[in-house]
Amino acid sequence: MELFTKTLLLCLALGLANGAPVNHQHSSAVDGAAHAAAPDRCEGIEFDAITLDAKGTALFFKGGHVWKGFHGPLHLSNEFFKELDDIHLVGHVDAAFRMHNKENPEDHDHTYFFQNDKVFKYDNDTLENGYPKTIQEEFPGVPSHLDAAVECPQEECATNSVLFFKGHDVHVYDIGTKAVKNKTWSHLPVCTSVLRWAEHYYCFHGHNFTRFNPVTGEVSGTYPKDARNYFMKCANFGHGGGYQAPKCSEVKLDAITSDDAGKTYLFSGPIYMRLDTHRDGLHAFPIIRLWKEVTNGVDAVFSFADKMYLIKDDKVYIYKKIVHYTLIEGYPKSLKEELGIEGHVDAAFVCPNEHTVHIIQGRTMRDVDLSATPRVVTQGVPLPLSNIDAALCGPDGINVFEGSKYYHYQSPMILATSRMAPFPKNITPAMMGCEE
Length: 436
Hints:
five-stranded antiparallel β-sheet, 7 helices, 36% strand
């Protein structure tokens, strides 16, 4: 098995299969803190609030301190949010969340902090004019002295909402209508902070966390779990501790595609990684977590019309994205029946706003019109490359991957008519989360 795949399998063993970030072992979480009374999150503390900022960095608050990132050092809260100290609470935060409201850019991706009966609204590190306000003024019907808060987009909660926690009571605030629905989740521990990360919801209590469904509060799986194993780097914690991200020179993909939401999916062996657009980082999971019928890896993957096509051997699996990916009835089908081609597929890609899938088999590329029934397949054209692993088409052109390198072409036509390969480029950390 390729070293890159082995490393990613280790990544899964470190907890990513549970939807939690990987742990990197380290001797201390507070290196550089210059205050004798500074908290140490590796001692098993209870956080006051946790949220992501506009850039996707996790903020962990305790008293007048904050850690920026799963592996970042400790700071005083007012180093970044100086107004939190103006009301004599030394930066203490009751609850916090990052707003999800794309219909209102003045609110979307802004961070809200709650102290007693006040709410502070920040654009990055800058307090918005007119704040702080009372919670009742900003979120009518929501109580003061909250324990926790978390955003919930309409894709996961039916409407764009905020969940406010106080004891076992949950106040679900509809951002559009400003209506509040009250629920009681007595089966869930009292959450002192809640985090939405990678489309999962985590209730933190003590030094543990419990993952829950944001609509029903249902808990699935074995919980609670110790946060030190997943959300921070601490000595003697984590599932393996010695994990290192793969070197870029060791990357070996089986397939790559992007969906309509801008998320990029990278496949290697039995796992896939998801790279979000500008937030929340790189996440690795078993392929069967989303596409449970595909149990032995993939040969090629492409996206078209809100569907994802996974090719393995001589079969095509088509999944429809609703909330989660669901296999369309009647699939898998044979390559011949679905795409009109036969033989092993090395790579496949569809360019934005097009209905043609470009199929690469060895040194030959064929085009298949996905809007035609039966499929119309063009005669194969020779390519200047061999041993192609994967290909991805975006607004800036096509990247064709071969091992740890890739070749860039401006269009499928240029790829099809080229007789010499361009100069190869190295895969970078920004592209795939690997190390130099």
